[in-house]
Structures are given as C-alpha cells and as structure tokens.
Amino acid sequence: MRRALAGVALAVTSMVALSFLIPLALLVQSEARGRATTEAEQRAAALAPVLALTTRPSDVQQAVSGLDAGDRLGVHLPGGDVIGAEHAPEAGLDRAERERETLALGTADGWVYLQPVILAKNRVAVVESFVPRSDLDRGVALSWVVMSLLAVGLVGGSVVVADRLGARVVRSSRSLSQASNALGAGDLEVRVEPAGPPELQEAGTAFNSMADRVVQLLAMERELVADLSHRLRTPLTALHLEAERIGSAPGAERLTAAITQLETELDSIISAARTPLAVGPLGAATDLRERQRATAPGGPDERCEVSGVVRARVEFWSVLAEQQGRSCRLYATAEPTPVRLPYDDLAAVVDALIGNVFQHTPEGTAFAVRVERTAQAVVLAVDDAGPGIADPGLALARGVSVGGSTGLGLDIAHRATRATRGHVRITRGPMGGAQVQVTLGLAAETKRGLGRSSRRTRRSSPSQLSRAREPRPD
Fold first, then answer.
1. Does 374 lie in the same domain as 258?
2. Where does residue 184 rank: exposed (0-12), middle (13-18), buried (19+ CB within 10 A)?
3. By residue range, what is the domain housing residue 419?
4. Euclidean distance between CA atoms 402 and 78, whole angstroms
5. What is the reported pTM?
6. Are residues 422 and 374 in the same domain?
7. Around 424, how many Cα atoms within 13 Å sit in the side-chain half-sphere?
8. Residues 114, 106: Cα–Cα separation, whole Å
9. The domain spanning residue 222 has which CATH number?
10. pLDDT, tens digit (0-9, with 9 covering 90-100), for 53-71
11. Does one domain contain both 59 and 34?
C-alpha cells in the first residue's frame, strides 16, 4: 500500500509540475528573446534622426560608435557604403530598401533587424541591428535548471509525505489484520489500539467490540451448557436412588454402573464448561452471567407463581423421600407469589436445593420446604436435619464444591435471585441442619396491599402429595 500511495503521489505531482513547468519554460524563453529584440530595435531607431540630418560617412560612423553597439549595428548608405557591422543577407537588404518596410530575419548566427530610413530626394538608407544567438537565449538555461530542480524537490517532497502517511495507514491496517488473524486462530485476548485515520480508528473500535462480544457469547454458551448439564443431575439422582432401592435384583449392578458412568460424564461436561475464558485487556463484560440472564429463554417479562412451582416439585421429590424414609413437609402461603422468572428457571432452583438434600444427607434425614410472602419479596426456604454446611460463603461460589459435587447447584439459585434483585442466604435451620433461604423479588405490578403479612399457610405431608402426576417436565 505504501508503494501504491507513493506511486500515486509521484504521478499526480509530476503531472502538476509538468503542466506548470513547460509553459513557464516557454514563457522564460519568449521573454529573453523579446528583451534582446527590443534592445536591437531601440538601437536601430536611435540612428534614424542622425541619418535624417546627415549621410556623411564620418558623421554616421561617429553616431554608430556613440551607441556602443560593437559589431551589432551597421548602416547601409544609399551610395552602397556600409558603416559598422554587416550581418544581414543581401536579399533581405534589397527587400527592405525596395519595399521600404521593416524586416526581422533569422540567420545562422542570430537575429537581424532591418529598418529603412527615407532620406531627401527619395533616397533610402537601411539600418541593420544584429542580435547574436547567445543573447537570444541568455538566462534561459539557468532558469530552466532552477525550475527543474524546484519541480523535482516538490515531487520528492510530496512522495515522502505520501510515504509517511501511507506508513501510518499501513501500520494501522497491519495491526488490525494481525489481530483479526489471531482472533480467528482462537486468541480471545487479542485487541487493537485504534490508530490511524478516523475510518481505521472506527474499524479498530468495532473490532474490539466484536471481540468482546465473541467472548461474551462463548462464556454465555459455556454457562448454558454447564447449567443444562447440572439440570440433568435431578433425574439422574432419582435414577441413582431407584438403583439403590433395587438392591441385588438382576441387572442392578449394570444399572448402577451405567448411572455412575453417566454421572462421571456429566461432571466432566460441567468441569469443561466452567473453565474460565480469557478476556482481552480492553475489557469484556464484567458479569457475563448477568448478560446470560438478560437473554434467557422466555424474556424478562415471563413470570410464574412460586407456590405453584414449589408445590409441583415437592410432589415430584416426595416419592423418593418416602422410599428413603425421609420426612418431607411443605409450608406454602395461600397469597399470590408472582416473580419475574420463567417456570423452568424456578423449577431448576427448587430441584437444585432439594437435590442437594438428597445428595449430601444420609437416608432418613428429614427436610422441609417453606414458601412465605413478605412486603417486597417471596422467601423460599429449604431446611434439613443433616450435618449442615460448614462454610456457607464457599458453598455459594460458582464451581466450588464443598461436598464432592460440581458446585453449581447453589449458584443456580444465586443467579435466579439476582435476576429478581433478591439474595441467597445459608444458615443453621430450626431442624438442626442447613437452611438455604432464597429471597425472590415480587413482580412490580403485583405490589398492592404490601402492608399485609402472609400468615396463612398450607401444610402438606408426603401422604397428601400425588405420586403419579408431574405437572410439567423439567
């Protein structure tokens, strides 16, 4: 590109220089010739008054010598005498004398000016003024050399300036090209420093935005893979418990081995999906999980009733609880509990909390699920009578396991609460074990009569929950 820009500058400035240089050179030559011929005419005109007064050779010779013209001035008297220099051709002299008109003739040595002077008795004298060829071109060569050097300097300067500008453009273009190739090769950290002309600066800024967006989309995809894989652990847990209940029946070992292998594969998928992505030095999104929630299926306006979702999921888990001898109790408020979350997202939260009870507490450990409504939020609490959680803060960290799991269960609940401006809290519950309390903000348009507290609850036991119906698939 630098060569192309320099070539364009060279061609353009050369044409401009030539378009001015050629006419200017011709004008200089014309001016030099005009100056020399004007001087010759003036010398010839100065002798006309002298010849009108006298034609004596001595007087004419004195007049010619007084003009200090050297061998450039001559007079042809009527009698054929010639005073001074003689350079004009014979034919030219005869014509000037016969036709009595001024002539300008070019010769091999220069230029001759012939001026006839009419004397008394109809006689004619011819004054000859000669200009050597060197005088005709005096100063022309030097002027041409100076103008040529000036044109070459201007052309060279324009080429240098074009090359410097081209180098700036080339550096910016090369940097953008290298960054694009690096991004295409998988280097997610590559960014460019916008430089060069405004158009290339805009292209560099657009490239950085595109690279940040690629990082965001990849992170969102990995988050989605990890969360969907974790949701598969709910039916997998049910299968695992069913396999344990089968005991020593034929095929139980193969079923247990298959479930264990499936569990291992899911853990591998989740571990690979939650591997951190590199973020460029100019910065991507500070919280990619917030962006994932903003683009989650169902949109920000989809909502559901917390009490209904919790009741359906507890009904599903109550079958397994009864098989393991777990006491399962549900306390759900009768007041409306709408939140701005899709059904599947809230169901995943409930499954994650209850599934953790089954995974991390011994069989026979009782648990309870409570749904209450406050002035500004809905509180979902899951209590168990197990050993509890020693480090609640570490348990809430995404991808950190405190019990041999993938560590994503509580994070699913944590992200759902953040979508509704709520929070998750882990404490020691009234049953002696852990209590996971999930606070979800109420949907905005349902915040009427918020001064009333919810005291009406519905209490259910495993025997009161249907064992054959599951309202919606996960």
1. no
2. exposed
3. 299-474
4. 136
5. 0.42
6. yes
7. 25
8. 11
9. 1.10.287
10. 787 888 888 887 777 666 7
11. yes
